[in-house]
Amino acid sequence: MLVLALCLCLGMSGALAQEDGLSTARDITAACRFNGRERIEDLEDGNYRTFWTSHRREGAHCLLVSAPEAVGGVLVRWRNPAPLAAQVKQGEAWVTVVRSDAAYAALYLPLPGLTEFRLVNADSAGTKLEICEVTVYSQGTLPQTAQVWREPAEQVDLMLLSAHPDDEVLWFGGLLPYYAGECQKECLVVCFAYNAYHRRLELLDSLWTCGVKTYPVFAGYQDYFTSSLKDMYKYWNRQYLYQDVCNLYRQYRPRVVVAHDKRGEYGHGAHQAVSDAARKAVALAADATQCVGTVKTYGVWQVPKVYIHLWAENRLTMDWHQPLAAFGGMTAQDVARQAFACHTSQQGKQWAVLDGGAYDNSLFGLFATTVGPDVMKNDLFEHLE
Q1: Looking at residue 39, what is its pLDDT?
Q2: CATH number of the domain that 131 lies in?
Q3: Residue 105, Cα to own-chain centre: how many angstroms?
């Protein structure tokens, strides 16, 4: 059930290896021509709910790009993610000059100074492209806003289990800005459910705003609203969910896991199910007789620390209001609010990133630990450093 992105065949560090002294790359999208036209509205309107669908040209479904100057790279935001290749015409044939095997929903493809090229599905040039947005960059050092995602490390520092896009900041506040952005921890977000493709892109914008550079795991569950855990398990298979989380623990070997409130914050059944699985999978992942399909591949894993939002025992309250150097003095809570604004489809509803209250996003309880209880109670990584 898990939907995991493939690794880029090109190292992302290499993609960004620009010569010293080059100016910052500029967004030259507005000056480019696509398929011989000055503008394709759906590719440049900043609206993830609209998308462009390709038509076959010269034997391939493609997007033809003509730029007024040498291109350093292109960022494609997909409706349906696909591996991407750039091709140039040599005589009568189209030849691939660079490709990525990643299926990131927001995929940056570095280009070697091309001005005329086409984009195709790297695995099958005959497959339709469905693209929400394209950003073309000139040569130079990429701006920080350009999303160049990477695969998780062999072991992640923090794994956040989040039911939906926007939960990562609504209920966990400054967690990601502080640990990913300020502390430079390897943070992996697992998003379990969403029912609209644009929400995936909104999540990527939110995570990038928080300083997360590791591409999230989209677990592939269909979203349903229920007000009880029992009803949620009428839609989600309990054992499959337990196994999926168990396998995630083993594959990524997180040092710290954080998950939803046991009661699902305001009572959402998906939140409750994610919290339930986060807790049950701790023992499963450490037991070689459970989820045996991944024991040989990954071995077993005992998660050192597991925190549950609002958990009543072994509580600590994080301070999301200290200025962060990584964000120019903004607080983690300020950054979380900016990140929530990236979820444009969720604005104007009843939820906001708030201080305190019944769902205090700074309040966590230590559910499980192999390193002893917290003493200072101001750092999820206490005893692990």
Answers
A1: 85
A2: 2.60.120.260
A3: 9
